[in-house]
Amino acid sequence: MPPIVAVENLRKTYRYVRRKPGLTRLFSRDFQTVEAVAGISFTIAERERVAIIGPNGAGKSTTLKMLSGILEPTGGAAAVLGLVPWKERRALAYRIGVVFGQRSQLWTELPARDSFALLRRIYDVDQQTFTRRLSQLVERFGLGPILDQPVQRMSLGQRMRCEIVASLLHGPALLFLDEPTIGLDITAKAAIRDFIREHAGAEGQTVVLTSHDTRDIELVCDRVIVINEGRIVVDQPTDQLRRQFLGHRLVTLRSAAPSIDLALPGVVRRTSEPHISIFEVDTRTTRVDAVVQAALALGGIEDITIEDPPMEEVVRAIYDANR
Amino acid sequence: MFATYAVNIGAAIRTSLMDRTNFILNSVGMVVNDVFFLALWYMFFAGFREVGGWGLKDVALLLGMIMMVVAISGVFFGGYRDMAATILRGEIDALLTQPRAVLPRLLARESIATAWGDLVMGAWLLVAFAGLGWRDLPLVALGLAAGTTVYVASAVAYASMAFWFAGARSFARDLTDFMLLFSSYPGSIYSGVSKVVAYTLLPAGFVVLTPVALLREPDWQTLAIMIGSALGYAALAAALFNLGLRRYRQGLFAAG
């Protein structure tokens, strides 16, 4: 079976004008070239759920923009569902769904239902198919009570669920999600992840996702492509990456005592300052709830925060390990 | 394509009507603004019989037509107003992932509430002061269609500069405002350089002066010029926008 996405030595270079000081800038311009994507190659098979991750400016969004037909590359080749995205943009648009976490495709002042009706016209979906798909998605996503509410009055989580529904109404075979959980609370993130995983599984959709949140990758994707400075650093199954890099949590304890000591296997103290202790927990060795119980047993704990390590840190670790 | 545009602009009009108080205040505010402007002209004609061959009736025709052009543009193509800002904010990315032409989607993004005030005032001027009747309707409709096309096309051309430089956000608006200003005075005041500008860069001549000339003295030559200018400006604006869009998609975009 041919791959859904095939990318060969794809490159994208941006050119910026570097501002010169004083009046000289009126007479001469100094251009600076930045290689956002520096020759990447990969393929994605049908039904795969792939995360493209990397620090800010790594080239993730640029890659997604080229694959969805928004941007033309500087060089290289790509085929998405058998089409060249930047040459066959409109034909491709009927077959892909795109969600930008920080951009909306909904009319914010109108109820989500109105935006969905408009998208039906844009994608030429017949009324019967549209009604069936919308009712399925609304039920699966629990959107019934808010469907007639103006989008601008929704919470960020509700809005994002509507954005994802909007991207699925025309029944795309491939879904591009650019930072779909950015800015959401834990509950909303969980709802989005569950939905993407379950829906894509049930409909046989291929998913390409970029994110800064390691949990998005762990819980949604079965393969990870790590990009740094426009190049692919790692391309491997999530399970493999999880074993090496993703099985860590950061537990921050705020205590009445100046310092807390936890003698548990797989728990390492990181930086600390008076009354705040940060521990890195290897969850393959010790579960986070065991760490929390041990801390509470010591008494005097005022606050507990559990976080994933920042993406930059994970990528740096992956990068260092693969050098 | 027209059905999709109609649904799109229908949503924009509903959006502009969502906040009823705001809509009424905007529309009434525009009517008051227009009344003050007209009062100035009325006082002028109380002292002088005409300006460069244009009497009160001619100026009423001119102002009625430009108000109607601005009103139709605002209600049905209101996205032209913030198009440069929309481009600079990168909001066309979402439109590029959808299977439709980008320019109509941008024009149908917004419907301007104040434009309804202009619509009422323009119609009232044309009927009550310019003395137009039912028999003038075909030429008025044709004149408004041509004028609106040139007005919106020019605004699109100005907004397309945003693909080349970030300062286009306010510059495009300034040029549109200047075009409107140029369209608010009798054609006889323009000569030399100002006349060249009024028939090229700020095409008041084609937005309103040619349609008014056709209504004052209908002839085939004026009709041909009016239709030709509308088609020409529309083609120019579409070409400029598509050139800019290509630049945007190549990543040569000003805002980076």
Characterize the structure shown.
The complex is a heterodimer of chains A (323) and B (256). Chain A has 323 residues and is of the alpha/beta class. Chain A has helices at 60-67, 89-93, 112-122, 127-141, 156-168, 186-203, 214-220, 238-246, 288-298, 311-321, and strands at 5-18, 30-44, 49-53, 75-80, 96-100, 174-178, 206-211, 223-228, 231-237, 248-255, 267-273, 276-282, 301-307. Chain B has 256 residues and is mainly alpha-helical. Chain B has one domain (2-255). Chain B is built from 12 helices and no strands. In chain B, helix 3 runs antiparallel to helix 7 (115-129). Chain A binds chain B through residues 12-16, 65, 68-72, 74, 86, 89-91, 93-94, 96, 98, 100, 103-105, 107, 109-110, 114-115, 117-118, 121-124, 150, 176, and chain B through 3-4, 7-8, 11-12, 14-15, 18, 90-91, 93-94, 96-100, 249-252, 256.
Q: How is this structure best summarized?
A:
The complex is a heterodimer of chains A (323) and B (256). Chain A has helices at residues 60-67, 89-93, 112-122, 127-141, 156-168, 186-203, 214-220, 238-246, 288-298, 311-321, and strands at 5-18, 30-44, 49-53, 75-80, 96-100, 174-178, 206-211, 223-228, 231-237, 248-255, 267-273, 276-282, 301-307. Chain A is of the alpha/beta class.
Count of DSSP E strands of chain A? Answer: 13
What does the largest sheet of chain A look like?
6 strands, mixed
Q: Shape of chain B from CA axes? A: globular
Largest sheet of chain B: none
Q: Helix and strand succession of chain B? A: HHHHHHHHHHHH
Our Rg estimate of chain B from Cα atoms comes to 19 Å
On the 0 to 100 scale, the average pLDDT of chain B is 92
Proportion of helical residues of chain B: over 70%
The tally of helices of chain A reads 10
The outline of chain A comes out as globular
User: Spans of chain B of 5+ residues with little confidence (pLDDT < 50)?
Assistant: none
Average pLDDT of chain A: 89
The SSE string of chain A, one letter per element, is EEEHEHEHHHEHEHEEHEEEHEH
Beta-strand content bin of chain B: under 5%
Placed side by side, the strands forming the largest sheet of chain A appear as 5-6-7-3-8-9
**Structural classification of chain A:** alpha/beta
Strand composition percent of chain A: 25-35%
| Helix proportion range of chain A | 25-40%
Distance between the termini of chain B: 31 Å
